[in-house]
Write a structure and sequence with these properties.
CATH superfamily: 2-C-methyl-D-erythritol 2,4-cyclodiphosphate synthase
Number of helices: 5
Shape: globular
Strand order of the largest sheet: 4-1-7-5-6
Order of helices and strands: EEEEHHHEHEHE
Number of domains: 1
Enzyme class: lyase
Organism: Thiohalophilus thiocyanatoxydans
Strand content: 25-35%
Number of strands: 7
Pathway: Isoprenoid biosynthesis; isopentenyl diphosphate biosynthesis via DXP pathway; isopentenyl diphosphate from 1-deoxy-D-xylulose 5-phosphate: step 4/6
Catalytic activity: 4-CDP-2-C-methyl-D-erythritol 2-phosphate = 2-C-methyl-D-erythritol 2,4-cyclic diphosphate + CMP
Distance between the termini: 12 Å
Subunit structure: Homotrimer.
Largest sheet: 5 strands, mixed
Structural class: alpha+beta
Radius of gyration: 15 Å
CATH architecture: 2-Layer Sandwich
CATH class: Alpha Beta
CATH topology: 60s Ribosomal Protein L30, Chain: A
Length: about 160
């Protein structure tokens, strides 16, 4: 078994789409990023890559490469899952946390779990997604952006 952890944060920008865990969330701001800015998936990719000792998302999908401009982060996650499969590992479980003051995310958590469980090729019971605020403290509390943390446990396929 191997464990990995990931973290990502993006600042809000006026307009644009807000996509978290592959789900488009109605909001008056999007996230500034080279890709679609899905901080939850970016943290998840980093956790998986960390468990595999393969670096981070920026090494595999650099923001200097126009091929990744505006890309759907679920495509990046599926590419990371190809790496996990090539090494004969699988997701045992994943625990993800979104950190945002706004918007309220609870209504979208189940849809995120369903999409990501599919991409992770695991049962939905192996995937936890939570959302929390920072009670008005820090950049997320001031509504300047959103952050996400992820922890994954992988093991060899038997």
């Amino acid at each position: 078994m191997r464990i990995g952890q990931g973290f990502d944060a993006h600042r809000f920008k006026p307009g644009g789409r807000l996509v978290l865990g592959g789900v488009e969330i109605p909001h008056d701001q999007g996230l500034e990023a080279h890709s679609d800015g899905d901080v939850l998936i970016h943290a998840l990719c980093d956790a998986i890559l960390g468990a595999l000792a393969l670096g981070d998302i920026g090494q595999h999908f650099p923001d200097s490469d126009d091929d990744f401009k505006g890309i759907d982060s679920r495509r990046l996650l599926r590419q990371v899952m190809t790496l996990i499969g090539e090494r004969d590992y699988r997701i045992q479980n994943a625990d993800l946390t979104l950190i945002a003051q706004q918007p309220k995310l609870a209504p979208y958590i189940q849809a995120m779990r369903e999409l990501l469980a599919t991409d992770l090729q695991t049962d939905i019971d192996n995937l936890s997604i939570k959302a929390t605020t920072t009670e008005g403290m820090g950049f997320t509390g001031r509504g300047e952006g959103i952050a996400a943390m992820a922890v994954v446990l992988i093991d060899k396929r038997s």
